[in-house]
C-alpha cells in the first residue's frame, strides 16, 4: 500500500525533515508511527497525502508513483487517502452532516447517495443524532469523531491520522483507537502518528519509530529478526 | 451503481451541483446584505454613467435626425429675374420628380415684410431699387430629404441659369452631428475605463473573499477538491455581483430619465415640439445586463486565477 524507497525531505534553509527512509506498509495493516515532536512524523504523513513532495527518493502509494504525479492529479490521489488531524480541521460554518458530506460532494456524488453514506459514517462513529449540530457545540472527542467520519465516508483504502488523540483524555483516546481497529478489520490500511507510547503499546500493532528524521526502529522487522 | 447508470446520471448531477453552487453563493451574498449591496451599488454607478450618456446621445441623434430631414432648400434667384419669370420657374420646378412643394417669396412682398419687421423702413426707402432677390423655398419629397439627396438636388438647382445662390441649411445640423460622434466616442472610452474599474472592484472583492475563506479552501483541497471545484463558488459570486450591479445601473438610468422627462417635455413644448425622451430600449438593457454579468465573471476569474493557486494546505 505504501512504499518509501530511500526517501528524503529537506526544507529550504537546510533543515532536514526526513533522511533515507525505506519503508513498506502492506494493505490492511494498522501501523503506529511514533517519535519525539520534530522527528518527522508529520512530514512522513504529508508526503503520503502529497501535502508536500519529497526532495529525493520514490514514494509509491496504492500503486501510484507520487514522485511523478502531476499537480492537477493530486486531488484524485487525495480522494483515496482519508486524513485525520489533531485540530480536526472542520468547517465551523457548516453542520456536522455537511462536514462529513464534503468529500462526497467534492467527488460529485448524487444527493441521495451522499445522504445514505454520510448517515452510515456518522452512525459508525456514534454521532448520527448530532448530524444537524454545529461542530463548535460538540466536545473535543465528538469533533474528532466527526473528523474521522469525514475521513472514512468515501471509503478510502488508506487512512492517515496525525496525533488524533493529542487533545483527548486517555478514556476518549481509547475509544478513538477502538474505532480505528474496527476500520482496520474491514480492510482499511491505517497509519497513525502519535507520541502517546503507552497507548500505542497497548494496541499490540506494528510500531515505527522516527528519530531525527530517520527510521530508527520497526517492530515488524525486529519481530522477524527474533524469529 | 453500475458504470452505465453512473455515466447517465452525471450530467444531471453536474447541473444540480452548479445550480446548488449558484444558489449558495447567492445566499452568501444575501447573508452579507450590506457589504454586498455596497459592492453592487459601486458597480451599478460605474455602469450607469456610460449607459445614461449613451441614452442621452441616442435621444439627441433622434432629434437632430428630425431636423436634418426637415431641411429645405433656399433658391435665391438672380437680381435680373423678374417676378413674372420667377413664377413660371416655380411652376416648372413643381413638376420636378424630387420636389414636393415650391413656395415663391417674391421680392416686392419680401421688401414690404422686411420694412415692416426690421425697423429699417426709412433706410430702405432711400435705396433706388429693391435689393432683395426673388426667393424660392423648395421642400424636397420625403424620399429625398436625407443629407446626400438634398445636397444632390441643391447641386442640380445651382446649375439653373436663373439661380444666384442655393442654400441647403444643413451646416449646423452637420456640426451638431459631428460633435455627437465625438461625444459617442468619448462614451465608448468612458465605458471601457469604467468597465476596467468594475473588473478591479469585483477582482478585489473576490480577493478579500478568498482570504476570508482561506481555511475552508485549505480543508477542501485536503479532501481532494479540484481547483475547478474550489473556483466555482467564487466565479458565481462574481457573476452575481456583476448582474446585480447591472440591475442597479438599469434602475439608476431609468430613474434619471424619469426625473429628466418632465423638464424636457416642458422645453419641447416651448419649441412647439412633441419630443418624447425615449427611455432604455430592450437591446441596451440586454447588453447592459449581459455585459455586467460577464464583467463580474471575468473580474472574479482574474482574482481566482491569481490567488487560489497560492493557497495550499499544510
TrEMBL record, chain A:
It is found in: Cell inner membrane; Cell membrane. GO terms for biological process: cell division. It is a peripheral membrane protein. One of its GO terms (cellular component) is plasma membrane. Keywords: ATP-binding, Cell cycle, Cell division, Cell membrane, Membrane, Nucleotide-binding. InterPro entries: AAA+_ATPase, ABC_transporter-like_ATP-bd, ABC_transporter-like_CS, ABC_transpr_LolD-like, Cell_div_FtsE, P-loop_NTPase. Its main location: membrane. PROSITE patterns: ABC_TRANSPORTER_1, ABC_TRANSPORTER_2. GO terms for molecular function: ATP binding; ATP hydrolysis activity; transmembrane transporter activity. It comes from the Bacteria. Gene3D superfamilies: P-loop containing nucleotide triphosphate hydrolases. Pfam families: ABC_tran. Part of the ABC transporter FtsEX involved in cellular division. Important for assembly or stability of the septal ring. Belongs to the ABC transporter superfamily. Homodimer. Forms a membrane-associated complex with FtsX. This is Cell division ATP-binding protein FtsE. It comes from Candidatus Thiodiazotropha taylori. The gene is ftsE.
Amino acid at each position: 500500500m505504501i512504499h518509501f524507497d530511500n526517501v528524503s525531505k529537506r526544507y529550504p534553509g537546510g533543515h532536514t525533515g526526513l533522511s533515507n527512509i525505506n519503508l513498506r506498509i502492506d494493505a490492511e495493516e494498522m501501523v503506529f508511527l511514533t517519535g519525539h515532536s520534530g522527528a518527522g512524523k508529520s512530514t512522513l504523513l504529508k508526503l503520503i497525502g502529497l501535502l508536500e513532495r519529497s526532495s529525493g527518493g520514490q514514494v509509491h502509494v496504492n500503486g501510484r508513483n507520487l514522485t511523478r504525479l502531476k499537480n492537477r492529479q493530486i486531488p484524485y490521489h487525495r480522494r483515496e487517502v482519508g486524513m485525520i488531524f489533531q485540530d480536526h480541521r472542520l468547517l465551523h460554518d457548516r453542520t456536522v452532516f455537511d462536514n462529513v458530506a464534503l468529500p462526497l460532494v467534492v467527488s460529485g456524488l448524487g444527493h441521495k447517495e451522499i445522504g445514505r453514506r454520510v448517515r452510515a459514517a456518522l452512525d459508525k462513529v456514534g454521532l448520527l443524532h448530532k448530524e444537524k449540530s454545529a461542530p463548535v457545540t460538540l466536545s473535543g472527542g465528538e469533533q474528532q469523531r466527526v473528523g474521522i467520519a469525514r475521513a472514512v465516508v468515501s471509503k478510502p483504502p488508506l487512512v492517515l491520522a496525525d496525533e488524533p488523540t493529542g487533545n483527548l483524555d486517555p478514556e476518549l483516546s481509547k475509544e478513538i483507537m477502538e474505532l480505528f481497529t474496527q476500520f482496520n478489520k474491514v480492510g482499511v490500511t491505517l497509519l497513525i502518528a502519535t507520541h502517546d507510547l503507552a497507548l500505542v503499546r497497548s494496541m499490540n500493532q506494528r510500531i515505527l519509530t522516527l528519530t531525527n528524521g530517520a527510521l530508527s526502529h520497526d517492530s515488524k522487522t525486529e519481530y522477524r529478526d527474533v524469529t | 451503481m453500475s458504470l452505465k447508470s453512473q455515466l447517465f446520471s452525471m450530467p444531471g448531477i453536474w447541473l444540480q451541483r452548479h445550480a446548488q453552487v449558484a444558489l449558495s453563493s447567492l445566499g452568501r451574498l444575501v447573508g452579507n446584505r450590506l457589504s454586498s449591496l455596497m459592492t453592487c451599488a459601486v458597480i451599478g454607478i460605474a455602469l450607469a454613467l456610460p449607459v445614461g450618456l449613451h441614452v442621452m446621445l441616442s435621444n439627441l441623434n433622434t432629434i437632430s435626425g428630425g431636423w436634418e430631414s426637415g431641411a429645405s432648400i433656399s433658391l435665391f434667384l438672380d437680381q435680373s429675374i423678374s417676378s413674372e419669370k420667377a413664377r413660371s420657374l416655380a411652376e416648372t420646378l413643381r413638376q420636378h420628380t424630387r420636389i414636393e412643394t415650391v413656395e415663391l417669396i417674391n421680392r416686392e412682398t419680401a421688401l414690404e415684410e422686411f420694412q415692416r419687421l426690421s425697423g429699417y423702413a426709412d433706410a430702405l426707402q432711400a435705396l433706388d431699387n429693391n435689393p432683395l432677390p426673388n426667393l424660392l423655398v423648395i421642400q424636397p419629397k420625403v424620399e429625398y430629404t436625407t443629407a446626400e439627396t438634398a445636397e444632390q438636388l441643391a447641386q442640380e438647382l445651382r446649375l439653373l441659369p436663373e439661380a444666384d445662390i442655393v442654400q441647403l441649411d444643413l451646416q449646423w445640423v452637420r456640426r451638431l452631428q459631428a460633435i455627437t460622434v465625438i461625444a459617442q466616442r468619448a462614451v465608448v472610452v468612458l465605458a471601457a475605463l469604467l468597465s476596467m474599474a468594475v473588473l478591479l472592484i469585483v477582482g478585489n472583492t473576490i480577493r478579500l473573499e478568498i482570504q476570508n475563506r482561506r481555511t475552508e479552501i485549505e480543508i477542501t483541497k485536503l479532501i481532494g477538491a479540484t481547483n475547478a471545484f474550489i473556483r466555482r463558488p467564487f466565479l458565481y459570486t462574481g457573476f452575481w455581483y456583476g448582474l446585480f450591479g447591472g440591475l442597479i445601473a438599469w434602475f439608476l438610468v431609468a430613474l434619471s430619465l424619469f426625473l429628466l422627462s418632465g423638464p424636457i417635455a416642458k422645453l419641447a413644448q416651448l419649441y412647439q415640439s412633441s419630443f418624447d425622451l425615449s427611455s432604455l430600449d430592450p437591446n441596451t438593457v440586454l447588453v447592459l445586463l449581459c455585459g455586467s454579468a460577464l464583467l463580474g465573471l471575468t473580474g472574479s476569474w482574474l482574482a481566482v486565477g491569481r490567488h487560489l493557486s497560492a493557497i495550499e494546505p499544510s
